[in-house]
């Protein structure tokens, strides 16, 4: 019997099979309806143009209280470290607060500032590649895909390299807050991770106030817009956001992208023969298996999408992963093609919430894949597809473990 949209979405969000392989389910939901109101009252948008239009709408706002209402009521909000953090971070702010926060932090992510980091990132990549060359086999996620963006963002902020490993699991635990269908145990784990990183960055902020350095955190502490400065809570929130987004999204891009190349060796060979395609290939990696699969918004006014009016006060899920496989925008969308150049990806969102660190993430990935393909012509995954483990998450989709060998 054919499943309806609600049944397909339940399978997508709530089953191990749906979390591991979401794309066939996206297609079936998209074929049924471009805009769907679920039985629980949430709205889902699936097509590329519709998702892009919705994310750009001035009436599609961030509202953590509404998005996380199914797991905890507003009266209980302050009891949860993972939720208390959200109103203080730019990711969940709306204008004028969002405009203010973005202006105070934006100086660090200009094209000039990002390009100035290229020599450092190149050296980091070469060092991690040296380890792969010495060892012959590594867990690519643990030994490459996490350390690279963690070091890059950590050094920007002024986090000592020695502290980075201790931050990985707590930060990942907190970021599970963005997943749909959290259980009370899941929320407790998110709280534990959030409390750890809040405490860590609180101490780091205080230390940088006393001893400013040549790093982004010191610059954020000193940043002013007239008489305006970031508050203590906003500084801690900014550290959590920049470090968390800096390593999680880029780590997943590096992992999902490498997996796509391993599963399509002819595309890997094509990149070796045409290294000038690397920037284009990174865009295709972002499209084909996006590290960010969805975005949450709440409407403050009726919004019309694909001929359907979404009412004011609606909670909306924009399915970026489904949009990236929309055949109306990407011909033969299930084909991984490093030469594709059909449309801008939505992995870094769209509109005013477009990710500040997108250019940094792209540069890290371009340098990483260029270096690995150049240095290791026999790159492969020992054990094949069965050796690859995905995290059981959808919002931030990524590989948990990926063995990688040089020959």
Automatic annotation (TrEMBL):
<protein>
    <submittedName>
        <fullName>Cytochrome P450</fullName>
    </submittedName>
</protein>
<dbReference type="GO" id="GO:0005506">
    <property type="term" value="F:iron ion binding"/>
</dbReference>
<keyword id="KW-0408">Iron</keyword>
<dbReference type="InterPro" id="IPR036396">
    <property type="entry name" value="Cyt_P450_sf"/>
</dbReference>
<keyword id="KW-0503">Monooxygenase</keyword>
<dbReference type="Pfam" id="PF00067">
    <property type="entry name" value="p450"/>
</dbReference>
<keyword id="KW-0560">Oxidoreductase</keyword>
<keyword id="KW-0349">Heme</keyword>
<dbReference type="InterPro" id="IPR017972">
    <property type="entry name" value="Cyt_P450_CS"/>
</dbReference>
<dbReference type="InterPro" id="IPR002397">
    <property type="entry name" value="Cyt_P450_B"/>
</dbReference>
<dbReference type="GO" id="GO:0016705">
    <property type="term" value="F:oxidoreductase activity, acting on paired donors, with incorporation or reduction of molecular oxygen"/>
</dbReference>
<keyword id="KW-0479">Metal-binding</keyword>
<dbReference type="InterPro" id="IPR001128">
    <property type="entry name" value="Cyt_P450"/>
</dbReference>
<dbReference type="GO" id="GO:0004497">
    <property type="term" value="F:monooxygenase activity"/>
</dbReference>
<comment type="similarity">
    <text>Belongs to the cytochrome P450 family.</text>
</comment>
<dbReference type="GO" id="GO:0020037">
    <property type="term" value="F:heme binding"/>
</dbReference>
